[in-house]
Amino acid sequence: MAKSTREFVCQNCGAAYNRWQGKCDACGEWNTISEEGAAGEARAAGPGRPPRKGRAFALAPLAGEDAQAPRLPSGNGEFDRVAGGGLVPGSVLLVGGDPGIGKSTLLIQIAAALAEAGHRSVYITGEESVAQVRLRAARLGLTDTPVQLAAETSVEDIIATLSHGKTPRLVVIDSIQTMWTDMVESAPGTVTQVRASAQLLIRHAKRAGSAVILVGHVTKDGQIAGPRVVEHMVDAVLSFEGEGGHHYRILRAVKNRFGPTDEIGVFEMTGGGLAEVANPSALFLSERDLGAPGTAVFAGMEGTRPLLVEIQALVAPTSLGTPRRAVVGWDPSRLAMVLAVLEAHCGIKLGGCDVYLNVAGGLRISEPAADLAAAAALVSSLAKSPLPPDAVHFGEISLSGAIRPVVHAPARLKEAQKLGFARAVVPEATRAAGEPDGLALAPLAALIDLVAHVAPSPRPGGKPRIAETNG
Ligand code: TYD
Ligand code: MG
């Protein structure tokens, strides 16, 4: 009996089934499974063909001449920082992000910068027409740069074109979801097509030594759509993010075989394209509500770079049976933890309050060091008592209510000092780091000390003021 060559593949995670079903068992998504040709169909050995005999190859030691990957700086400082110092020849980068966030804008700017520096740089679009890309380039003032442009979607044709003439140093493919190859039968955009197209382009990049940047779309929950599989195949995955309504865009490395994954690049979307932001702290603090209760400045770290951001909190009596907890830019489970510690160790009742927390400027913070700043903003909002505008905060809160030390304290303090802050509320252990000139440290051992600081009790031994306001 002939073996079936059809299979059913989840378009979200790539899991394969031999019959259709409504829900993918692997990732739990509904209605994502569709029929495709089996992955190995095109190359499968025919029934009569004998299996190929393996060929022996030489094994090499770990030590070798080529330990350092040579880098080609793109000329865009923020992009290079995230990529780990520049583009690595023969590497493949995947840039993911929501539609309209500015992926095409960023990549045409990078292609133009390299072309300007005298390297062959090719931009292939499968989403727009050549005229549309030209229109954007004109807006960005890049018309005179020698970028080679094409609107194409066939991977075989693209590779044939790239193999002609001088080897391109950079090839941008916008986007991988629009590419298709003759090797597989499925429609463009399906997991099988995306995987096969990416595989061909990756093989071409390694063979030719060109750096290839693939653009990938992101699903509603932030995964690079469909081809999660592509994430495993490429050398680096960068995610381009930003909050709607803000002009800042953050480029973040999710995976990087040639560099760190904790660096971010900050850009501002302007009328003339994406501008690099060299001093992001100044940008994130530029629109502060000085003197309003419920805001605290957090001295954070993004990779090797300190970054000051404002954390805003609103604590208000609820009119609902179950109080609301809403967070933008921070981890909701960390907020729940900080609230639990405030209740358990500081005697603050929050059960009857709605709590909102927001990281200003559309930044997303994942550091536990933000606990103290978040707690300060919450207590300040509840007590309606503004925090000193010239103070920064950092420190991790443990479940016992103690303030734990965090890494890179000197760099955080230095950044705060540079931006004119006069006080730093820090963990007790940071005292050892010493006080930088002009910056007074307020070391805290426990969260209860912070509460006493922000909302001092009106009479000795009395309940903190917030316990009363909250009735
Ligand atoms: P685009 O690069 O097309 O996004 P993506 O490729 O990620 O889908 O960017 C589109 C948005 O960027 C669009 O909403 C307009 C805005 N934009 C500017 O604000 N200034 C500019 O100079 C350009 C080119 C785009
Ligand atoms: Mg685009």
Characterization of the model:
This protein folds into 3 domains: 32 residues; 202 residues, P-loop containing nucleotide triphosphate hydrolases (Rossmann fold, 3-Layer(aba) Sandwich), CATH 3.40.50.300; 187 residues, 2-Layer Sandwich (Ribosomal Protein S5, domain 2). The C terminus is likely disordered. The strands form 4 sheets. A 9-stranded mixed sheet has the order 6-5-7-8-4-9-10-11-12. A 7-stranded mixed sheet has the order 15-16-14-13-17-20-21. The longest helix is centred in the middle third of the chain and has 18 residues. With 471 residues, it is of the alpha/beta class. Helix 9 packs parallel to helix 11. The chain binds thymidine-5'-diphosphate (TYD) and magnesium ion. The site of thymidine-5'-diphosphate has 15 residues, from helix 2 and helix 3.
